[in-house]
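Ops channel
N.P.: pipeline sanity check, posting one input/output pair.
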C-alpha cells in the first residue's frame, strides 16, 4: 500500500508514486523527482495542476508561507512529465 497525498492544484488524492513531489530548498519551491529532499513536501498530479497552484499561490499555503514559487517551476514540471501530462 502506497500512501496517498493530496495534489495542491486540484485537491484530488492519489497514490504518492503517481504525483510529482515538490520540496522547499533555501526558501524556494523546487522539484524533487527523487523524493529525497528533507522536510515538508507538496504534491502535484500534472502540469495543469502546477499552473493552478501557481495562480492560486497554493505553494505558500502548502509550505506555510515560507516559500517562493517561480514560473520556471512550471517549465520544470512540464519537462519532468513530458508530453504525457495533461
Ligand atoms: Zn491535481
Amino acid at each position: 500500500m502506497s500512501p496517498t497525498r493530496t495534489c495542491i492544484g486540484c485537491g484530488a488524492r492519489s497514490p504518492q508514486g503517481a504525483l510529482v513531489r515538490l520540496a522547499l530548498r533555501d526558501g524556494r519551491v523546487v522539484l524533487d523527482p527523487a523524493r529525497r529532499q528533507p522536510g515538508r513536501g507538496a504534491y502535484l498530479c500534472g502540469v495543469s495542476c502546477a499552473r493552478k497552484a501557481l495562480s492560486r499561490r497554493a505553494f505558500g499555503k502548502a509550505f506555510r508561507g515560507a516559500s517562493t514559487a517561480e514560473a520556471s517551476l512550471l517549465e520544470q514540471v512540464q519537462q519532468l512529465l513530458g508530453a504525457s501530462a495533461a
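N.P.: looks fine end to end. Helices lie at 47-55, 58-62, 72-81.
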